[in-house]
């Protein structure tokens, strides 16, 4: 009989490529991972791994087994959801991942909504960059999370995960305002959309402020600028949008910011121009867990907390 815990290790190895990476992600020692995979090979009765230098390559039989593992793990999530539904009454810990702007602008209201309906449920929020969410969900460190995608940073489907759309945001080019102008348009889907390429190219020689490398926000800015025909000269790397806007107001550069990053009028010094792009936020969870009562309840609370001025995500985007 194949052990589901060992199947999970094989699935993670298929995603990460090295035993060391699997061990780090799942809080095992590399030797423990190797031993468990060796046991799985004996259970399977044929080779599953081929070593190529420091990496490990899965045999065709192992690749096929990973596909079965995905199906088994999804069915286990559905079984857990059915049992939770049968028990009735939500209680216990729900581990939630959210990126900073959503943590500030959306999650507190969602938690209030959730507490009124399910006071025995204990949500625990962890600020998590969307790029790290897939691993955290598959490892069981999170139960549900908010992730976002950009027009210039499409994200392929993640094995073992499912998502549901939540909302879309307008995107803006934030630049130092020329005195005496300090006004900006009311953020939201009703703001007029500018010629994006022309707006970005107008600032090609300016210093730029981006998020830190490795984040989707950083990749989005670089790709948007390259689509406009240039590579931005990055001066500052900042993840918090309030700080980004303060640096823009100080004349330190320009930046692309989402609607939720605009927390209120920044005062004199910043001008916003709406771009023809969007950031879309989704609710992510392990495949099969969407019907779990705790996950479904938190998703409902998130939808109730979405501000009315946020756009519905563009279909098929």
Automatic annotation (TrEMBL):
Matching Pfam families: HTH_1, LysR_substrate
Occurrences of domain HTH lysR-type (ranges): 2-59
PANTHER family from the UniProt entry: LYSR SUBSTRATE-BINDING, TRANSCRIPTIONAL DUAL REGULATOR HCAR-RELATED
Keywords, in A-Z order: DNA-binding, Transcription, Transcription regulation
Similarity remark: Belongs to the LysR transcriptional regulatory family.
Protein source organism: Streptomyces polychromogenes
PROSITE patterns, alphabetized: HTH_LYSR
Source organism, top-level taxon: Bacteria
UniProt-recorded name of the protein: LysR family transcriptional regulator
InterPro entries per UniProt: LysR_HTH_N, LysR_subst-bd, WH-like_DNA-bd_sf, WH_DNA-bd_sf
């Amino acid at each position: 009989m194949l052990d589901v815990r060992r199947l999970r290790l094989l699935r993670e190895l298929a995603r990460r490529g090295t035993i060391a990476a699997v061990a780090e992600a799942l809080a095992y020692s590399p030797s423990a991972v190797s031993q468990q995979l060796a046991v799985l090979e004996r259970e399977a009765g044929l080779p599953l791994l081929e070593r190529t230098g420091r990496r490990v390559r899965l045999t065709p039989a192992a690749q096929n087994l990973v596909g079965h593992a995905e199906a088994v793990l999804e069915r286990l999530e559905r079984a857990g959801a059915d049992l939770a539904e049968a028990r009735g009454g939500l209680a216990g810990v729900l581990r939630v991942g959210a990126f900073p702007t959503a943590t500030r602008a959306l999650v507190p209201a969602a938690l209030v909504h959730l507490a009124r309906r399910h006071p025995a449920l204990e949500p625990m929020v962890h600020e998590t960059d969307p790029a790290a969410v897939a691993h955290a969900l598959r490892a069981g460190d999170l139960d549900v999370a908010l992730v976002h995608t950009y027009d210039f940073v499409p994200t392929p489907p993640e094995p073992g995960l499912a998502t549901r759309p939540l909302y879309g945001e307008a995107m803006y080019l934030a630049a130092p305002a020329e005195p005496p102008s300090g006004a900006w348009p009311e953020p939201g889907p009703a703001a007029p959309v500018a010629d994006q390429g022309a707006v970005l190219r107008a600032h090609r020689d300016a210093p730029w402020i981006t998020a830190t490398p490795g984040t989707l926000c950083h990749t989005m800015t670089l790709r948007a600028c390259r689509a406009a025909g240039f590579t931005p000269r990055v001066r500052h790397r900042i993840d918090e949008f309030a700080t980004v806007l303060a640096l823009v107001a100080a004349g330190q550069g320009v930046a692309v910011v989402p609607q939720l990053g605009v927390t209120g009028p920044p005062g004199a010094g910043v001008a916003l121009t709406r771009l023809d792009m969007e950031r879309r936020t989704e609710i992510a969870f392990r495949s099969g867990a969407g019907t779990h009562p705790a996950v479904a309840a938190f998703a409902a609370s998130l939808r109730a907390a979405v501000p009315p001025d946020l756009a519905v995500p563009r279909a098929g985007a």
